[in-house]
Structure formats: structure tokens, C-alpha cells
Please model this.
Amino acid sequence: MKPVETFPRIWTVVLACSLLASIQPAAAEALTLDDYFSHALERSEVVASQTELIRQAEERYQQAGAALRPTVSGVASYTWLDKGARDTTANPTRQPNARLTATQPLFRGFREFALIRQTQALAGALGEDYRNAQMLLFKDVTQNFYDVLSLEQDLRNLHKQINQYLEREQELRDRVRIGRSRSGEMLTVQSTISTLRAQVEQLQAQLATAREAFAFLSGLPAVTPLRDTETLPTSLDTIETYLARLEQRPDVKAVQLRLSAARENVAVARGARQPSIDLNANRYLERKGSLEDVDWDVQLELTIPLYSGGSLQSRIREAASQSTQAELNVSQVRRQAEQEIRSVYQSVLLDRSQVEALEMATAAARKNYEVQRHDYGLGLVTNLDVLQALTAYQENQRALDRARYVSKFNFLRLETAVVRRPVAPVGTTP
Model:
């Protein structure tokens, strides 16, 4: 073989080795799916923002509870009066006043209790929103995790296929030299190799995009290796088992808690129409005039709302409409959640069937390729038959590897959809 003919093959082998080295790093440094998710969870601004919303809701709950407790304030004033014809002894023209004032709400139409329950429900809903944000982030991480692994495996399969075609090229080159094969057969193989190398470039671009998404989600270098440790169960539970966990989904819990909050808001609005009773007390530190010797007083105050231009009734109707809207939202979210579970469940079932079929097809295609290659050596089949058998075998192998990763991804989607898959490492839930 001439040196000029050897160079392209050497260049291809070197390129393949360097690429395989880049996509098959040391296993000890590789990240599992859980490791990847932990890094993504720490980096996610969406999840961090949900944490702050929870803190804000907790503070609003504290503020609602404070409405039941007394308030104490210090008040100081200085009054100047026109002398006129008044008795300046009983009503001096200069009246300093300093006092401590305490107010204890006694009755507010029970709206303060409804407000506490409302803020508590909203705080719980935000907690479920936090868990739902984790669930959505886990789905994104899982999608990217298996995108990267699938593309890397596809590249390995392509390079294996290229090497097999290079072997065919060398074999044909030797046969052409001794006159047992035509030059056209070798050109066909070379054309196929060029096509496969173009596919490698295309996959490399897709892998680079997936790796950039990995770096964005995890905050780690894009070249960080990944390691798949997930396993599929030998059997799948019934659809009824998965649907029974519908109410445990965080998005369903969140809308149900918001419905409770909306109903409590109706009670808050109605409570504004009820009388309110407050107990007020003053402790005077300094005062002038006829009441100078009175050190304290206590007042029981009753307030009855009589007319407010119709605003109170309008707020009640608005709150009732918001409650109805919340009921509709609960129904919509539950139906969407059920549809998601059913859809993903069917995908998992089809994935299992597809993987089984592809395993049998790949085994048959590999055996056919081996037989065709053997018969070609005996002159029983043509080179085209061998190439077609090789292409069928490799295409089936690539499809099988992709289907395996898709099957794992869809199974994890199903587990996440029914909150079976832990969506947060221990210690990250607020």
C-alpha cells in the first residue's frame, strides 16, 4: 500500500481515537443524574426565587396573626389654645400631652381568623410551587442528561461503523489489486465513509449544543463527563396505581390550597360588614387642664359599618368570583395532570416494546452481516449485499441505543409525574 493512500486512514483513526477519548472520560470523575441535579438545584434562580416567595408568605402569615394581638404605642403632643374667654385654669393655653396607648381587638367579624387561614393556605401553596419548580428542573436535567449520553453513544457507534467500512475498504483495495473486485466497489465504500463523517460533524454540533445546556443548568464545565446509573424495572405497575398518586403532585396540591385561600378570602370580605369591638387604654405620663390628675382611662369601642357606597358588597362578589375561578383552575390542573400521567405511561409501555423489538432486530442484523461477509469471501454474494447488511446492522444498533436512553428518560418522567422520584436531595427543601 502506498504512503499517500495510507494517510487518510491514519488521519481517520487518530480523529476517532481523540474523539472517543473526549467522550469517554474517567468514570471516577463522571457525574450521575442525581449529582447533576444537585448542582442544577443550587444554581437555579427559579428555585431560589420560590424560596424567597415562601419566606415572604411566612412573614405575611405572621402579620395576619399580629392582628389578634394588642398594639402599644407612645403618643406625645403639644397644643396651643387661643385664650379668648376660656377658663385658663381648666383649659390652659399651653397643653403638653404624653401617654401610652394600647388597643386590643376583641371582635372583627371573625375576618382576622379567616385572614390567618388564608395566608397559611397561600404559604402552603408556595411551598408546593417550590416542589413543583424542583420537579420541572429535574425533568429538564433528565432530558439534557440523556440527550448528552445518547449523542455520545451515537458518535461511538458512528465511529465504529466508519472503522468497519475502513476495514472493508482495505479488503476491497487488496482484492482490486489482484483483480478479484472492481474499483467501483471500493468507491462505493469510500462514498459511504464520507457520508458517515458528515453525520459525525452534524452530531458533534448537536452534542456541543447539549453540552452548553448542561453547563447552563449545572454551572459546571461543559466537558464534565456523565455516567448513567439508572436502571429500568422488570415490570411496570398498572395505570391505576399511578393515577392513585395524582393528589400527591405538588401542582395539584398548590391549586387546591389556593382554592382554600380563595374561599377564606370570601369570609374576609364578608367579615368587613360585621361590627367590630376594640378595647382601648391610655396611660398618661403628662397632661394639663381639668383632667391633669387622671392618670389613665379605658374605652370600649363599637363600630358598625352602615354605608360605604356599595364597596363592601362589591368586594364580596369579587371574592366569590375569585373562588369560582380557583375551582375551575383546580379542575383544569387535575385533568392536565391525569392526561400527563396517562400519556407518559403509554410512552413507557411503547418504549419497552420498541426496545425488545430492536434488540431482536439488531441481533438478527448482526448475524446477517456476519453471514454476508462470510459468503462474500466465497464469492456467493456481492459487495453491495455486504454493505447493505452492515448498514442495516449499524442502523439497528444506533436505533437500539437511542431507544434505551429514551426509555429511561420517559420512565423517569413517569416516576416524577407521580412524585415517586425524589426531586430534591436531602436538606434542600425549605
